[in-house]
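User: My instructor asked us to take a sequence, write out its structure as tokens, and then describe one feature of it. I'm not sure where to start. Here is the sequence I was given:
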Amino acid sequence: MKVTHKIKVMMLAGKGESSTLIFNGIKDNFSIEKVIIEEPISKIQMLKRRAQNLGLIKVAGQIIFMGYNVWLKKISKKRIIEIMSNEKLNDEKIDGQIVSKVTSVNSEKVIILLKKIQPDVVVVNGTRVIKKEVIEAIDAPFVNTHAGITPKYRGVHGGYWALAENDQEHCGVTIHLVDTGIDTGGVLYQKAIRTTNNDTFNTYPYLQIAAAIPLMKKAIKDIADNTYKIQNVALPSKLWSHPTIFEYLKNRILHGTK
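Assistant: Let's start with the prediction itself. The structure tokens for your sequence are:
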């Protein structure tokens, strides 16, 4: 492993592919001491929470879209392979020797590992909202990759929603500090992405990850040099959720958003 910056990095991650891509994108530049991977919330539990927050009708529409998206993923495969190749995204499995698995990123085990390793920076990707006691367990910044331009597109599928709102200018990615809110931490870097007619709901995240990796490297280097700064982003704040089949079809017809 070729490490170009002396800073101790720890990663808190979900089980999704995006965490693997981010890890492989930064591993040659920084010493990643430990990767903690949390188990995802069960689908039943997730749907129950959504129903409480969004209502049964909206969640039913989301479930129907999830079924439709199985087909959409299949027709997006060729474009995903193309992006992976063009952007040199690496999906090689993370070395198991540095991986610890936990039921939740908010567990006591995570706090113990943070205090033991004492990283200079904690890279976050794909986890549930992190509790205050975890963030404050050590004196180091937690830095997250968000697939959207915050605060305008907080929540999930920020790239898709920007395009659905006919807002290409704000279809992009954000590197931000982590606080106890949902994508509300101070912005370090942002960048818009360019999409093509071949891109879909399932390919936008790959373009966003490709844009995010160099920004995450910059953010970690800034932290190492103690030069990182929070940007003043003058945008309205809105939290977005998964699209329903009705929203998706409407956006496809009105704006051609796939």
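For the description part of your assignment, you could build on this observation: The first helix runs from residue 17 to 26. Try explaining in your own words what that tells you about the chain.
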